[in-house]
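Format notes (please read before filing issues)

Several people have asked whether sequences and structure tokens are stored in separate files. They are not. Every record keeps both together, in the order shown below: the sequence lines, then the token lines. Line labels are part of the format and must not be stripped during preprocessing.
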Amino acid sequence: MAENTTDKKPTQINLAEVVSRYLEGLQRVHDVINYVLAGERLLNEQEYENFSRASRVMPSQATRLDYDKAKDETNNWLLKQTLNETLGLVTLYLDDCRTIASICKWKADANRSEESLQKILNEERAAFLRLDLPAKVAALKETFGIESSTADHLSSLYKARLSLSNADGLVADKDATDGKLTVQLRNVQLVSKPAENQPGGVFVTSEVGDTVRVFKVGEKSEAR
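Then the structure lines:
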């Protein structure tokens, strides 16, 4: 019987599809947040009381939250869940970055082998997954030269998420540097400028910029 010499088709990685998958995940989080916040704008104290008291059984009715307290706790819960979801997506994205970069490096190695490929896909991946988010970012930079202009932003959001797990969501010494937790956010900001050729007119545009939030030790790292 003749030996089958048909070459295997090369595996192709569509980077656009990889990015699109994560953008779709972020869009889902964005839409859920908007849904909850839109509902909050329409909710008033009386409606909350009516809906809450419709529950015939409560775990601890004596400690039931009033409207204002429930609103604060909901906002904090939403912040925590949002960070969980988005940082979770970032973690998976960094894992894909490592895998793709490792395979490219393996492919360029003249002495590559199936054994070394399996090491990339198993042992090295398992070791990477054990790292926390800031360590993953650092490992990609050190090993492959992959870095991001938002690395400090990610690190600060990761620390903020950890602080939300503390008792009452208070910033602890372990979360802070020089007694404070600094959170860096990159967002779209409205910027106004004097309109040209229109005395007294104002031209408003949107620009991407950074916003900084500072929380001292003992303060609650909440949305504000």
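For reference, the curators noted about this record: Residues 149-224 form one domain. The radius of gyration is 24 Å.
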